[in-house]
Design brief:
The protein is an alpha/beta fold. It has two domains: about 300 residues, Aminopeptidase (3-Layer(aba) Sandwich), CATH 3.40.630.10; about 140 residues, Aminopeptidase i, Domain 2, CATH 2.30.250. About 30% of the residues lie in helices and about 25% in strands. The chain is built from ten helices and 18 strands. β5 and β6 form a beta hairpin. The chain starts with a helix and ends with a helix.
Length: about 475
């Protein structure tokens, strides 16, 4: 009975953030150990992070911004058949797949036959999208008819300023790029909601149906039609304005990739400025950090690869992790190193010697709603980067985990673990790399309000993940 009572008390202490039990393995808040210089570095890093995420609100925008970072740091665009001798140790390259996937890599002193060090992230985030026929009229207003990408809590997207971003590809081969709402001088679109004065008949809806998916239709225009111009509805007026500005027609919108994302810019959260709030941190946070980390890599022993893919939130398709594009790129690099075409067997053997960190966000302990998660197992904001153990056959081999934690400990990187109780948890694209016979483990950062229009992370966790990536690339 004494033992049972002892562990009950310990459990209560853990919920309060204090750990005194035998399972205490040194996880602690990372802020107190920072020097004044380190704190300045953390804050500066977060400022850069916010500036990037404020521009990169879609995977296409991420690739565009990442390309600028790559070229500013001496990375050259990959050619399928580079000049003889061009692919030598220390050279820096980037490659893009269909404007939605990007790889940055630094050639190591060892040939790729001996393996690589890959950090994989995904750069798509939950969002709302145009349908193929995106506009409809309701009560003399023009609405955008939408579909969702990824798992949303629909009600969180009502009464939030929203922006439009993406591309419209026309049959003549030209592309119109759409950006409306992110500039402070731009208009925004909005999903309206009922006032409490008139919502009596809707109060019985359960949380998933407070705003139903087919009700996620932002208002895009309310001016009446210009009858003299032959317009018959508010939608006609919106289409005329889009045609005037972008040269697109209703038929062109059939081949559009336009996303509806929060217009809110990234901001510090808390008067102590320890947290960052921003849309798209799941998982463009890890994507940005891997991008920054590989720019710090100079002359690695093993070729260092920052690989950012699309469509993790829904399905792989041809710009996702399941695409053969990455395999083809690796074969091209191997062939350039050898001076002759590499074999598929050689690539498979190189994969067997390759180590991978698949990085994504996870659900940190929520101070308002702590109940769903086990406080012993859950990551916490400010405790450093996270090593995720999913269980159920979806986790790293013990010996690879031991190597990784040994690396982080030697480099004095603050890290913690995260796992879920039964019935909870998310997914991972690490399976693709594991199926290629690579050693792989899931890492990332914890965030609050995941999949919402304004996710929250800790600045020190961002910085520690950056340090972890740099150490891994150089291992």
């Amino acid at each position: 009975m004494r033992v049972a009572t002892h562990f009950t008390v310990v459990g209560l202490l853990l919920i309060g953030g204090v750990s005194l039990c035998a399972q205490d393995v040194g996880f602690a808040n990372a802020w107190p150990e920072l020097t004044a210089h380190d704190r300045d570095a953390v804050m500066k890093y977060a400022d850069d992070f916010k500036a990037f995420l404020g521009k990169a609100k879609s995977e296409m925008a991420f690739v565009r911004e990442a390309t600028r970072v790559a070229e500013a740091n001496g990375f050259r665009k990959w050619e399928s058949k580079p000049a003889a001798g061009a692919v030598k140790a220390g050279t820096r390259w980037y490659a893009i797949n269909r404007d939605r996937t990007i790889v940055l890599f630094v050639i190591g002193s060892e040939p790729i036959d001996n393996g690589m060090r890959i950090v994989n992230t995904h750069i798509d985030s939950p969002r709302i999208e145009f349908k193929t026929k995106p506009f409809r009229d309701s009560q003399q207003a023009a609405l955008i008819d939408t579909q969702v990408h990824g798992g949303l809590k629909n009600y969180q997207w009502a009464n939030v300023p929203l922006a439009l971003t993406g591309r419209v590809d026309k049959a003549d081969g030209t592309t119109a790029w759409i950006e409306i709402g992110n500039d402070p001088s731009d208009p925004v679109v909005l999903i309206s909601d009922l006032a409490p004065h008139v919502d009596r008949d809707f109060r019985g809806r359960l949380q998933p149906d407070v705003i139903r998916t087919e009700e996620l239709d932002p208002i895009i225009g309310t001016l009446p039609p210009d009858l003299a111009a032959g317009q018959r509805s508010a939608t006609d007026r919106v289409l005329a304005m889009l045609n005037e500005k972008y040269g697109i027609s209703a038929k062109d919108l059939l081949s559009a990739d336009v996303q509806i994302v929060p217009a809110t810019p990234p901001r510090d959260v808390g008067i102590d400025r320890a947290l960052v709030g921003a849309y798209g941190q799941d998982d463009r946070a890890s994507g940005y950090i891997s991008l920054r980390a590989i720019t710090d890599v100079k002359s690695p022993r093993y070729t260092a690869v920052a690989y950012a893919v699309n469509n993790e939130e829904v399905n792989s398709w041809n710009t996702g992790v399941n695409s053969e594009w990455f395999n083809t790129l690796v074969m091209e690099v191997m062939s350039a190193q050898k001076g002759s075409d590499a074999s598929d067997v050689a690539r498979r053997r190189a994969y067997q010697r390759t180590q991978v960190l698949v990085s994504d966000c996870t659900t940190a302990q929520d101070p308002i709603f702590p109940q769903p998660q086990n406080p012993v197992l859950t990551s916490r904001l400010g405790y450093g980067m996270v090593v995720k153990e999913y269980g159920s056959g979806r986790q790293a081999n013990a010996e690879f985990f031991a190597k990784i934690r040994g690396l982080f400990d030697r480099e004095k990187i603050r890290w913690q673990t995260h796992s879920y109780d039964a019935g909870y948890g998310g997914g991972t694209i690490a399976a693709w790399f594991a199926e290629q016979n690579m050693d792989v483990i899931d890492v990332g950062i914890g965030i609050l309000s995941m999949h919402s229009p304004f996710e929250v992370s800790s600045k020190v966790d961002l910085w520690q993940l950056h340090r972890g990536f740099v150490a891994f690339f150089g291992s």
